[in-house]
Specification:
The chain is an alpha+beta fold. It has 13 helices and 17 strands. The longest helix is centred in the N-terminal third of the chain and has 20 residues.
């Protein structure tokens, strides 16, 4: 173990960056095709901004003191600063704004499977639209990105914080008790949940409903019909109606087969106000993306503007897609040269690069330290010709013959 390494902060190597570039291009192109414009906020933000109404858990932030004595944090979330930026730059609350971003997030993770404290995240924020069409587009866009990346096994869980909030409206409990109940529900620990509800003297009717909530997950239509039977006020009913409207919109995109319900999951960010969702791929236990509606967040910055959005963990995506990258194709040609043939070799290397061919130009004295299996061709200057080698063939060719052969092999642009 390197004594200078810090747990949770990882180096990224060239083959990983190759996958990152692929993911980044797909995400940027997809966001742009839906009309989202990219923005970027500072790496450091005010601690007080993230602490408004407990919007973000304090113990998840990396804090430091600025030269002026103010407490700063490394960006632990992208939505809050974009809401701040939008409120300061676009004061008209009726204006519709569509922002996209790709940035680094710094967060003390509590995940059991992903221990990164710094990771790359992409996402979108759709502001000024309170309609279910907005939420439908956001979920459809997240699915579209995953499909464009070649991922086939996609599972989106939809929930709604208003459903449980409506149920909590029926009982008088402290915030700490509410957090405890939500923890039991999310972990689907029905036995402990029932015992705890009995200990704080929740009525039998409400207790039975709360104990049923952890089991409200599965196929959309079946689960929403079960949930309707548990509604005891208008807020709970309205939450389910919104989810059904959004589901029908996603159906119009042709993505309904990816949509499921889980009314028992919550989100660590307290700014969500309605529909929430998480996305999973390829059997990975950790959510690859999450998001939802946050209609009240912008008002804390002085502009009352409804909004919805999501973030997708690029670092987790890289882990998933890294095995698909062909490391042996990183370089097309290894060009080994000697001092006495430097001019001729440099001239040919320049011509090859001008044709779009990747050329790794290395002195022959370093040959033993090169992994030749990473290259399609090995090239050497011998007398007045060039030796072009593959795993199965070796030829001595003139410069013009080298260019012709590589064009035939479609290495050139």
């Amino acid at each position: 173990m390197n004594k200078y390494a810090i747990d949770g902060f990882n180096d990224i190597h060239y083959n990983e960056l190759k996958v990152y570039d692929f993911i980044k291009d797909i995400i940027e192109n997809t966001m742009e095709s839906y009309g989202y414009r990219q923005v970027l906020t500072p790496s450091f933000e005010s601690y007080d901004m993230y602490n408004i109404d407990g919007a973000f858990p304090r113990d998840k932030m990396f804090k430091l003191i600025g030269n002026d004595g103010k407490v700063l944090v490394l960006r632990p979330d992208a939505t809050i600063p974009i809401a701040r930026m939008a409120a300061s730059r676009y004061r008209n609350s009726q204006e519709v704004l569509k922002f996209g971003y790709i940035t680094n997030i710094f967060r003390d993770s509590s995940s059991t499977t992903d221990f990164r404290k710094e990771f790359m995240q992409a996402g979108i924020e759709y502001m000024g639209n309170s309609l279910p069409d907005c939420d439908g587009e956001i979920i459809a866009l997240s699915i579209n990105i995953l499909k464009e990346l070649g991922i086939k096994k996609i599972h989106i869980d939809m929930g709604n914080v208003t459903f449980l909030n409506g149920l909590f409206d029926e009982i008088q409990i402290e915030v700490i008790e509410r957090v405890k109940i939500l923890s039991y529900i999310e972990n689907k620990n029905i036995g402990e949940l029932k015992a705890y509800l009995d200990s704080i003297e929740v009525s039998k009717e409400i207790s039975q409903i709360l104990c049923h909530v952890p089991m409200l997950f599965g196929k959309f239509k079946d689960t929403v019909n079960q949930a309707k039977k548990l509604c005891i006020n208008q807020k709970m009913t309205a939450a389910l109606n919104t989810m059904e409207e959004t589901y029908e919109i996603i159906n119009s995109y042709g993505y309904e087969d990816y949509i499921f319900i889980d009314l028992g999951f919550t989100n660590q960010f307290n700014y969500y106000s309605g529909l929430i969702f998480k996305g999973y791929i390829n059997g990975i236990g950790e959510a690859i993306l999450s998001g939802g509606r946050y209609d009240t967040l912008s008002s804390t910055f002085g502009v009352n503007r409804p909004a919805s959005g999501f973030g997708i963990n690029i670092s987790l995506l890289m882990d998933t897609l890294i095995n698909r990258s062909d490391e042996k194709d990183d370089f097309n040609i290894l060009f080994l040269y000697d001092d006495n043939k430097r001019r001729e070799s440099l001239n040919l290397a320049r011509k090859l690069r001008s044709q779009g061919i990747i050329v790794d130009y290395i002195h022959s004295s370093l040959e033993e330290g090169i992994k030749k299996e990473n290259y399609k061709y090995i090239l050497k200057c011998i007398d007045n010709s060039f030796e072009l080698s593959t795993k199965t063939d070796k030829q001595l060719l003139r410069e013009e013959e080298i260019l012709t052969k590589l064009k035939e092999a479609k290495l050139c642009i």
